[in-house]
Amino acid sequence: MARPMIQVIDLHKSFGENHVLRGVNLEVDEGTTTVILGGSGSGKSVLMKHVIGLLRPDRGSVVVEGEPIEELDERELQRVRAKFGMVFQAAALFDSMTVGENVGFPLREHTKLSEAEVRERVRQKLEVVGLRGVEAKFPAELSGGMRKRVGLARALALDPKIVLYDEPTTGLDPITTDYVDDMILEAKRQLGVTSVVISHDIGSAFHVADRIAVLNDGLIAAEGPPDEVRQSRHPFVQRFLSLWFGRA
Description:
By secondary structure, the protein is of the alpha/beta class. The chain has a domain at about 95-160. It is built from 9 helices and 10 strands. It has helices spanning about 45-50, 75-80, 100-110, 115-130, 145-155, 175-190, 200-210, 225-230, 235-245; strands at about 5-15, 20-30, 35, 60-65, 65-70, 85, 160-165, 195-200, 210-215, 220-225. It has a 6-stranded mixed sheet, sandwiched between helices. A hairpin with a 2-residue loop joins strand 9 (about 210-215) and strand 10 (about 220-225). Helix 4 (about 115-130) packs across helix 5 and helix 5 packs parallel to helix 6 (about 175-190). The longest helix has 18 residues, at about 175-190. The two termini are about 35 Å apart.
């Protein structure tokens, strides 16, 4: 039986009069991929920032591997954050560094590995995401999909237990989106990582997710396996999903 890796319990967050999260409850099991779907301004990014301790809740709790992180000081939070890898929306690679230097950056910053060990780890992580022999290239020489893959390889460099993806398919054409979806699935298959994907891309969500949570008006409007969420009778979920399935 899978154990919960992340638990979000009655999470509330406001910024002035703007009540962004109004009591979010969510559980992410070890080794699964959960996609948090929602429109712009629905609170997806605010929720993700709570999961890695960048924001403190007004009320409620985020529990990572049994540890309520809102109770931790900054030094303890850094220890918990080491369990996470992050894939940013625009890959966020350093343009002045080669691919190999980008992927190796966290290893050089946070480990005492030798240069030979760093290079070998870089090679391994690039192979996981389906890239070989690109260490000497610069990000500008790569396609959008390849940059996303390099971003994932860098996120995997320190062998995190959890990978967070922030809108990984935004701005990509359908073929490249398919490549990125496959990348997420392959990382889970090869490494067994727990994945949380923040997205508004309905097609991608139903491709990669073990479970989907739809965020609306600061609450989870529907949550469960993709087929179950698709059958939800919640008015917002029906309307949101009809934008995709109504024309599919």
